[in-house]
């Protein structure tokens, strides 16, 4: 498995259907998006979502452990950023899966997150160097464009004060 196959599958509307974050440097981080009950969080249906990291691997190692990790995907939204990057979001084939992809303007994958527990991602908003991608569970995955760090936000971004 190499980056060319990953790119070819992306063109064919497929991504690695595992709980991972991929960076074009070749690093793959295993992730888990989970929640605990929190009655104060009305916006996210009384659930507090969190993202945890569970080790790193490479594409080669990952594909050594899985025969067919591919998932059919559907893009729900995309936004052109700074005239040189595109962020896309959508859903996998099972209904509870979501993904976020950052590409260059030639549609080459630079970074992506795939989750089997997030529910589909449907909306994208940019504020400065941060991109807010909303899940149908109403939490936001927040992507920092300068370093590709990502965290989850359980508040409604429309009620956050302008800083």
Summed over residues and divided by their number, the pLDDT gives a mean of 93
In the CATH scheme, the class would be Mainly Beta
Q: How many whole angstroms does the radius of gyration measure? A: 15 Å
Instruction: Count up the helices.
Output: 2
Sheet/helix structural class: mainly beta
Strand order, main sheet: write it out: 4-3-2-9-8-7-6
Overall shape: it is globular
List SSEs in N-to-C order.
Answer: HEEEEHEEEEEEEEE
Helix proportion of residues, in percent? under 10%
Alpha-carbon distance between the termini? 44 Å
CATH fold-level assignment: Thrombin, subunit H
Describe the structure.
The protein is globular. It is mainly beta and 163 residues long. The model has no long low-confidence stretch (mean pLDDT 93). The longest helix has 9 residues, at 3-11. It has a single domain (3-153), classed as Thrombin, subunit H. The strands form three sheets. Strands 4-3-2-9-8-7-6 form a seven-stranded antiparallel beta sheet. It has helices at residues 3-11, 59-65; strands at 14-16, 20-23, 27-37, 47-58, 70-72, 74-81, 85-91, 98-104, 109-115, 121-127, 130-135, 140-144, 150-153. The protein starts with a helix and ends in a 10-residue tail after the last strand.
């Amino acid at each position: 498995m190499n980056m060319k196959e990953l790119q070819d599958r992306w063109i064919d509307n497929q991504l690695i259907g595992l709980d991972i974050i991929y960076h074009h440097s070749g690093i793959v981080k295993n992730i888990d998006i989970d929640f605990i009950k929190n009655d104060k969080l009305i916006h996210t249906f009384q659930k507090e979502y969190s993202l945890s990291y569970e080790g790193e691997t490479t594409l080669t190692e990952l594909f050594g452990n899985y025969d067919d990790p591919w998932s059919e995907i559907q893009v729900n939204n995309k936004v052109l950023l700074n005239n040189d990057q595109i962020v896309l979001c959508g859903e996998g084939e099972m209904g509870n899966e979501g993904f976020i992809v950052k590409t260059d303007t030639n549609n080459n994958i630079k970074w992506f997150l795939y989750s089997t527990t997030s529910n589909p991602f449907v909306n994208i908003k940019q504020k400065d160097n941060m991109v807010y991608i909303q899940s149908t569970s109403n939490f936001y995955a927040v992507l920092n464009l300068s370093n590709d760090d990502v965290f989850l936000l359980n508040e409604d971004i429309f009620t956050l004060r302008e800083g």
